[in-house]
Amino acid sequence: MSRRPLTSQVVFGAILVVVGIALLAETTDAYDASILLQYVPSLFVLLGLYALLVSDFRNVFGPVVVIIVAAAWQLIALEYVTAEEITQFWPLVVVAFGLSLILRQVRSRPQAVQDTFLSSIGVFGGGQQRSTTPDFEGADLTALFGGVDLDLREAGIEDRPATVNATAIFGGCEISVPPEWNVQLDVLPIFGGAEDERKRRERDHDEVDLVVTGFAAFGGVSVTD
Hints:
Strand content: 25-35%
Number of domains: 2
Shape: globular
């Protein structure tokens, strides 16, 4: 059985553990961790880079934002620049979001079946997509101050795993799948969440059917049946 790479959530959790231990050492005077804490932003830069690599650059916007913000935070912490100088570059976040939308369309493969690959955006509103194709390949979902629903309960997968990239910012993405599907969640949550809400049951196979990757900030990505 092939070994799965660590998910972004696991790496994020490990970083929080390391930061928490350093803070505990500092607050209890057990060790002077001030120098270590000064380089905490670099850990989040590495987290963003890891999320980009593990998603094969399908998940772009969230990791790039994490890298930009963490790199700026690191420069301020090392006193190379001031916060006032950095804040004038905040439109780069908007640029990154626009580029990520363009990149998704460029990466989308030609569709042999109309709903083999889906794309849905919900901005200050909602969007719904439903696939019944027997060879579903993937989807790109974006929820910005809104919600997006993707129904795959009548879909099938020939070339496993299919990949759904979901970006939820002050919004939510809900993906409905057949109960027997083996789903791997690899969503990077920053003040957000990602959860497989299906009832736990024994899977009849170990092969991953669907990988859900993406980014959740003040929002959530959920898998249901």
